[in-house]
Amino acid sequence: MDRKKVTKAVIPAAGLGTRMLPIAMGTPKEMLPIVDKPAMQYLVEEAVNAGITDILIITGRGKETIEDYFDFNLDYEKRLSDTGKTKELERIREIAKLANIFFIRQKEAKGLGHAVNCARQFVGNEPFAVLYGDDVIVSKTPAIKQLIDVYEEHGLGVAGVKYVTEEQVQKYCSLKVESIKDNVFRVYDMIEKPSKDKIFSLLSILGRVVLPPEIFDILDETPKGAGGEIQLTDAMRTLTLQQGMMACEFEGTRYDIGSKLGFLIANVEQGLLHPETSDEFRKFLKGLEL
Ligand code: UTP
After folding, report:
1. How far apart, in whole angstroms, are the C-alpha atoms of residue 131 and residue 137?
2. SS3 call for 278
3. Which residue of 3, 34, 151, 277 pairs with 281 in a disulfide if CB–CB is 3.0 to 4.6 A?
4. From the CB of 130, is ligand 1 less than 6 Å away?
5. Does ligand 1 come within 6 angstroms of the Cβ of 112?
6. DSSP strand pairing (135-138 vs 128-131)
7. Is 262 a pocket residue for ligand 1 (Cβ < 6 Å)?
8. CA 154 to centroid of chain Cα atoms
9. Cβ of 192 less than 6 Å from ligand 1
10. Is residue 18 in some structural domain?
11. What is the pLDDT of residues 164-221, one digit of tens each?
C-alpha cells in the first residue's frame, strides 16, 4: 500500500532528569557522553541513518547546550584550524550538518505526552518517529528504521518493545499483544507503570515509537496519569483502541542514560568496543579486584 514516508522525528529532551541529579541540574542528561559522544548525537545519527531528514528536539530551561552542540562553533573551529587540527575540525563540522534540526521549548515538564504534543505544528499531517531523549540504542539496523519498516507494512502506529523484568515493567509500561510473526505483534492494550496485579505481559515500550498524526487530538484530551504527568502511553492506549497499534521487538542494545546504572553500563560496554579505548580499557577492567 502507498503510505506517507516517515521523514520527521521528534526527540523529547525537556524532562527534569531527577534520577540523574545532581549532574542533571547543570548538564542535560541527554548530553551525557557515551565514551566521546553525547547521547543526543547517537539519537540524531540513528534517525538520520533511518532516512529521517527533519528532527525536532523538545528542550526546556537549562537545556541550551543541546542547541549549541548542533550549531557551528566558530571560535572553537578557528582554534582547531590555527593549530592545524584539520581532522578534528572536519569531525565537529559534520555534527552541525547531520540533519535539519529544529528546537522548541516545553515550558513546563508536564510529562512525555505533553512534550510530544509540542510537536504538532512541526509534524503536520504525517506519520512521525519519536526517540526518547535518554534512551540510546546501539544496533546493526537503526532501531527506529526497524519500526518504520513495520509502519510501512501495516500502516498503524508502532511501539518499539523488549521483554523486561517484572520489577522493570512496573516502572515502565506493559503491553497486551498477540504475536503476528517473528518480532512483530498486534497491540490490544497497554498500561503505564502497572501495579503487579495489572501487568499484561513483560513486553514494555523502550524509547522508540512511530505514530500517526491522530495522536495529537488524542493528546489534547488525555488527562494527567501516573505520577501526575500527561503520559504518552495513555494516549497510545486510546490510539490502540481507536485504530490499532503494532509493536516491534527491535534488535539492539538499549541504554537508559537517564539512570546512573544505565549510564555506567553504556560507558563500560561501549568503552570496550571503541577503537581508541578498547585494548587499554579491557586490560584495566581485568586488573580490577572485584
Ligand atoms: P523520562 O521520564 O525518562 O524523563 O522521559 P524525566 O522525567 O526527565 O525522568 P526523571 O524521572 O525525572 O529522572 C523520557 C524522555 O522524555 C523527556 C525526557 O527529557 C526524556 O528524554 N521528557 C520527559 C520531556 O521532554 N518532557 C517531560 O515533561 C518529561
Report:
1. 10
2. helix
3. 277
4. no
5. yes
6. unpaired
7. no
8. 22
9. no
10. yes
11. 999 999 999 999 999 999 999 999 999 999 999 999 999 999 999 999 999 999 999 9
Give the chain's domain count: 1
Asked if pLDDT for residue 290 goes beyond 80, the answer is no
Determine whether the shortest distance from the Cβ of 14 to ligand 1 is under 6 A. yes
Give the Cβ contact number of residue 223 at 10 Å: 7
Q: Which atom of ligand 1 is nearest the CA belonging to 207?
A: 14
Confidence of residue 2 (pLDDT cuts 50, 70, 90): low
Q: Which atom of ligand 1 is nearest to the CA of 108?
A: 28
Query: Which of these, 130, 139, 104, lies nearest to 118 by C-alpha position?
Result: 104
- Let me know: does 86 contact 38? Beta carbons within 8 Å: no
Q: Which atom of ligand 1 is nearest to the CA of 229?
A: 28
Alpha-carbon separation of residue 76 from 36, 69, 175, 275 (angstroms): 17, 12, 47, 25
Q: Is the pTM of this model over 0.85?
A: yes
Ligand 1 binding pocket includes 249 (Cβ within 6 Å): no
Q: Ligand 1: distance of its center to the CA of 110 in Å?
A: 9
Is 119 among the domain residues?
A: yes
Domain region containing 233: 8-275
Which grid cell sits at 14?
A: 525537556
Please indicate, yes or no, if residue 282 is contained in any of the structural domains. Answer: no
Residue 289 lies in a domain: no
3-state DSSP assignment of residue 62: coil
